[in-house]
Amino acid sequence: MKIINPETFNETFQYFDKEIIVEIIDIFINEYPERIEKISTAIATENFPDLKFHAHSMKGVVANFSVPDLQTVARDLEMAGANADKSNVEALFEELKSKSQLLLEDLIEIRPQYL
């Protein structure tokens, strides 16, 4: 299942050099495991300021790739952190993981087009 809209992706990056696009993709790929781990730890320890911070950071990163559904989930996690609301964080985190995994797979697949 694809999560990146190719037309939107191309519109977003149409004025970027290919090297920059690869660099942006690589940053996401390389930082992804740590980002997910930090959100997971914040949830497990009920550290709501960290949850807010790391979910906000993830929201900003995925905004680069124009994936509104994933941005919404990251925003919802950010708001849960801001409101110290643990009622739905596990479900939101599972959705964040599954959708961001799809993004990761899409980026790995499209990366060679820019080499």
Care to describe what's here?
The chain is mainly alpha-helical. The chain has one domain: HPT domain (Four Helix Bundle (Hemerythrin (Met), subunit A)). The protein contains five helices and no strands. It has helices at 6-13, 18-44, 48-63, 68-82, 89-110. Helix 2 (18-44) packs antiparallel against helix 3. The longest helix has 27 residues, at 18-44. The chain is elongated and about 40 Å long. The two termini are 24 Å apart. The mean pLDDT is 95.
Architecture blueprint of SSEs:
Blueprint: H1 6-13, H2 18-44, H3 48-63, H4 68-82, H5 89-110
Overall 3D shape: elongated
Helix/strand class: mainly alpha
> What would CATH call the homologous superfamily?
HPT domain
Q: Provide the domain count.
A: 1
Q: Would you list the SSEs in sequence order as H and E? A: HHHHH
Query: In whole angstroms, how far apart are the ends?
Result: 24 Å
What is the count of DSSP helices, taking H or I runs of 4+ residues?
5
Our Rg estimate from Cα atoms comes to: 14 Å
